[in-house]
């Protein structure tokens, strides 16, 4: 009876007759191919741009100190400005991602980071520089949405491994930054026009700001997350998104074999008013059945991020003091702990009427590159074995291992020992923080995912600010306290990971 019907009519009738398909099943039908590698490249490159943006200030502080006549207090404020902006922004961008879209939040936040970074590069007044760094930090904090955006395009079989590759891009940014700084900052050109001054560090900041803007423009051509679209009840747009990915993966215009999706039980409608919606999203998360997971992940992020920034921002200072000690005391001086060397540095080098020196020692660039390279093995091992061993295993190992490395810093007596332990600490703690974003994507459903990841990041930035205060207060007199705090926080974080449910056991979309 149907022999005379054209084949496309038969296919159309078959498709219309299909029952609604669950979104996870539809994502499985999309397949895994070139689109996913491309979106990993874009999101990973954005993550590298974030690493560059966040840590570039560590090279700006010493190279711009003479232009702004910065004291140690001024340097501390400049270092903390980005953290304050990130602390404020992390909370807000999570709500924007859950209410307006993952892609929307990423484009807006990364554009903000790039624009204010460019403005900061030509700042001639210290308060303007501080404001621009604060706003840049506010923008770059939106990058936590990257994990939600990327993970919602990938089926459950590949998701954990796929998200773990993001750490490799962060490591790439950490390695690339000192190379760019080493190439640009030592240049001696000087452009003056009236009160306007432009030097090598200004050019360095401009170069560091460009990746955020370029990659935000590339994001415009990518689709919104299908899980976000369906959570908002946008059925047709979700189908269009899946068709787009399907065509890209299969390099053809073959018809996507799904026409109807099962809508979620509760459509997440946009709230009236920004602040009202922000409040409702936060309360909704911490009154839902996921509140225990949310609290635990926030505590872990607080402890791990406090420890990471507390010591990584301290490494250049430690290396500088060890170099001074080894040059001053060529022979053995019976120093048994790092803290004794730190105290001697505080007492002895009292040079007055010294001309302002904004040169960065060449060994600083080399050591930071070495620390970045040391992070490559962990960045490769984790995605290769995560499906076999699980996220929780690597989280526990990374936090306990970095905690032990932090404890051993108390006993170091040379620059080499400092470099080795610093590399171990950076490699393990950095991958641990990245994996916390991965596990949050796995444990929270679509309607809570962006807010949960961002609130965890907010607690982390509070910890980073606290860590800077602790180091500033105790580094000269009682440097054992920052080491003890860092070590304790990491060990506690590792133990708390064991209380989280195993990924894949919650049946979350």
UniProtKB/TrEMBL annotation:
Membrane topology per the record?
Multi-pass membrane protein
Predominant location: membrane
Which Pfam families does the annotation name?
Answer: MFS_1, Sugar_tr
Q: Name one GO molecular function term.
A: transmembrane transporter activity
Give the transmembrane region(s): 37-57, 77-97, 104-122, 128-150, 162-185, 201-222, 292-315, 364-386, 393-413, 419-440, 452-475, 481-500
Name the source's superkingdom: Eukaryota
Cellular component (GO) terms are: membrane
Where is the protein found, in the record's own terms?
Membrane
Keywords from the named record? Membrane, Transmembrane, Transmembrane helix, Transport
Q: Where is the Major facilitator superfamily (MFS) profile domain?
A: 37-505
Q: Which SUPFAM superfamilies match?
A: MFS general substrate transporter
Q: What family does the entry list? A: Belongs to the major facilitator superfamily.
Name the chain's protein. Answer: Major facilitator superfamily (MFS) profile domain-containing protein
Q: What is the lineage of its organism?
A: Eukaryota, Metazoa, Ecdysozoa, Arthropoda, Hexapoda
